[in-house]
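dumping this here before i forget
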Amino acid sequence: MKEIIINANPYEKRVALLEDHLLTEIYIERRRSKRINGNIYKGKVTRVLPGMQAAFVDIGIDRDAFLYVVDVMDPSIDYERITLPDDLDQMPGQEDHFSPNTETLFEGRNTSHGSNVAIEDLLKEGQELLVQVSKEPLGTKGARVTTHITLPGRYLVFMPNVDHIGISRKIEDKVERNRLRELIASLKKPSVGYIVRTVGEGKNEKHFRADIEYLSKLWEDVLVRSSNCSAPCLIHRELDILLKTLRDIFTNDVDQLIIDVKDEYSRCMEFVENFLPNLTDRVKLYTKSRPIFDEYDIDRQIEEALSPKVWLKSGGYIVIDETEALIAIDVNTGKFVGETSLEETIFKINIEAIKEIIRQVRLRDLGGIIIIDFIDMETEENRRKLLQGLEDELRRDRMRTKVLQLTELGLVEMTRKRIKQSLSNLLTNPCPYCKGTGRVKSILTICRSIQREIDRLIPSAKGDEIIIRAHPAIAAFFYKQEDSMLEYLEGNYNKRITIRSDPEFHYEQYDIIVL
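structure:
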């Protein structure tokens, strides 16, 4: 069973995707921090960086956006004559993404620039150009933009600057792929391109023609607005989270969509009646007094997704550690002891962990390099089944992923497209105590630091009394567990030592005053 649950208020909108009553994806849009992915801007080049083959572009937000050379349209290239590689049809691009993303169309290729054209030959400081955000600002990094503009519709993704027809990789039937390719070829205008999205499978000419007309008109509006404003300027804003959900996620395999605000329900119904009339009976208004996310046990699952440890039903568990460079996921047997052999026990834990790992990756929106440390198995057959099970489970994920082979140590390397910050980065801040390390010094370590600091101060100190101000937990430990150390210091330096607790102090903070 597949459900979409929407909680909306004037300050925040949350969209939850449930599969068999388990939360698998969560999207959050707040009034103070709306997403910009997919927005189209008229930007101005502020700096060209030949050493990085990139440029900074002012698009009118807090930080300049980053534009790689591979994402720049070269005016000297005739894009009508470019034939994109066949594997583009196997790339999800933006057709299977919740948020639009164009980077996969040209990433890592020199097709658009012939033979390694330099960034300084394409862009100059002060130059104005039309760009689209392909990746949200992440941490200290600004947004990534591209000049390869794409506009997503319900069934198609429109590429106004590339003459090409692509088919979603999720449409696997060869006969259907050929039918769709021929149908789009008969409808499309010269010099433009389309990618058929997964929901386009089985659709007829009427559906695609409506999408083409809508997207063509939208592109004309973009060009008109661009010609009438100066950079930096927002030209086109992507749909908000509710309408984007209807366009990209609300498909025939979704059993119901439930929303808890009448005004937003009416807005959703208007969209569905116009574009998805066959799904109108699946949109429902939630009217119970209990909060909708409590009713469907969503808030609890979000809280669990912020914890590094996730328990499996068998008693095993996985640990997820997010770092700046990569995501590490460790599988452990925990309380599970098995019934037959050690190999069988390990295999069962690993197989069970796969489903939960992919669910957590989707739910937490983890991206970049992901290393999964499965428990090491001896037999090659079990290794093969494990890798196949991982790839099968990843088919549920709309984001682009790539899985490498299982190593002899049980490690699997995979990559997952990252276009926005993870759930933990969205909902949490680094701990002011540990400053993001996840750990603080032990009480005994702090006491020994205080002792060493006294040893440094005493030789030059002239007073007869030493006052130590520290967190209440540290002060209590001194009097209860370290009283002998205080006696030693007082006897050794012939000075009276007083401990004073201060609840305003950081756990690791202390002051030593000599009077």
